[in-house]
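To the team - TNX complex, inputs and output below.
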Amino acid sequence: IIMKLYYVLLLLAFPLSAQINVVPQPNDVHYYKGSCKVDTPITYVKDPAIANPEGYQLVIQPRKITVKYSAEAGKYYATQTLRQLIFQAKKEHKESLPCLVITDAPRFAYRALMVDPARHYWKIEDLKKYIDVMSQYKFNYLHLHLNDDQGWRIEIKKYPKLTEIGAKRTNFEGSKRNNEGFYTQEEMKDLVRYALERNVQLIPEFDVPGHNDAAVAAYPFLSCNDTIIGVRTTAGVSKNLLCVSKKEVFTFIDDIISELSEVFPCKYFHIGGDEAPLDKWLENPQVQQLKKELQITNNQQLMSEFFKRVNESLAKNGKQPLIWMELEVPTYPQNSVMYLWRMHTTPQVLERAKKDNFKVICSPGEYAYFDYPQAKDDLPNVGWMPTLTLQQVYKFNPAFSLTSQEEKQYILGVEATLWGESVKDLFRAFYMTYPRALALSEVGWTQMQQRSWKSFTDRLEGQLSYLLHQGVNYRPPVELAN
Ligand code: TNX
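Output:
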């Protein structure tokens, strides 16, 4: 108590000094007089009183650095905070850290990035590097978009052609360039372990019923008319959906979910749901028949029916569905988590969440699409994409107009999507991700009262040095220099 009183008095005497350079900004920082040598050994103390498993307390005293945590996640995050502090001190040729107490915990439980090795294959080592960097900024989920029209990237033992045929995208973009590769289940299990050591859980996405040309190329029976196609070479939306009226399709999905559930321990399982034009379903006599049986009046109820069946497979494997929500689909499984993703749909999606009592992951095009260029005329420019600047990402408040009570009830967290059509390698992936992911990490972690664009830009240069030091490519935010 006397020590505490002593600190309070010191605090009154020495109010907030220059801010520390940490991203995301910790939620509570108190500075005290004095400093501590950078190489002081760290004492780790397990403290069950720290309620949030990702929360921690970091106490820097003149001759002592103490980390208090209740779970490994909090210990890991305290260490990340400290590493950044030490890096910044050394960068300024200082041998000491300021005395302080940081009491920190995240605003949202879910803070994710998504990558898309379906469009362009990523090597496992590249995924590891990506995880290394994101985990330092306290992101705790990496969503892997594992299949799309342009590629199937994960070994499925029961369906070997998925990777024999579906993992090869040849002669695309009118060039001779090929894109080929997939992950064995063993490699993926290793990646799961690697990520968990950094408090990152891997979420598989098996996108259904749309975006499945690669699967249909391997197994034509999956489509309504046994369509013979190749793996798609161009960008865009395909119409070869997995067929809603075929029993074999649901057996296929069930098998895949069972195999992937063994590989990915995470309770969340993404089942896609985006951009599925119904044309080929509706042309098909068996689907017409199914509509009659189910007394379907609104065609989109077929999608609801489809997800109901997919969810039965997830439930069997103890998984909870994540879905790219489409507003026109009338119902989704009750336990699903909905993505808010399409531009200009935020108010409607939030209304729907309240009405149907869904949790939401916020990944709106307006703030979180990292495949969009970061400045006008910046690369990659595929023509139709809007610009998503660093400042725009920073402005993001995932609660939108919700009250804090509603925020707790409906918003699970945030995610940025790095769609892969123009992300051809890790160099480009880092360029698109940083520094915008620094802004997003603060969006997910830091309470609004602690956030400020001014403070963020003051800390940016030091963080860019931190990335550079690790050999991480980023887009220099040249528009901020003056
Ligand atoms: C839409 S966003 C998609 C992706 C594309 C992306 C390009 C979403 C759920 N689906 O298939 O790659 O736009 O920005």
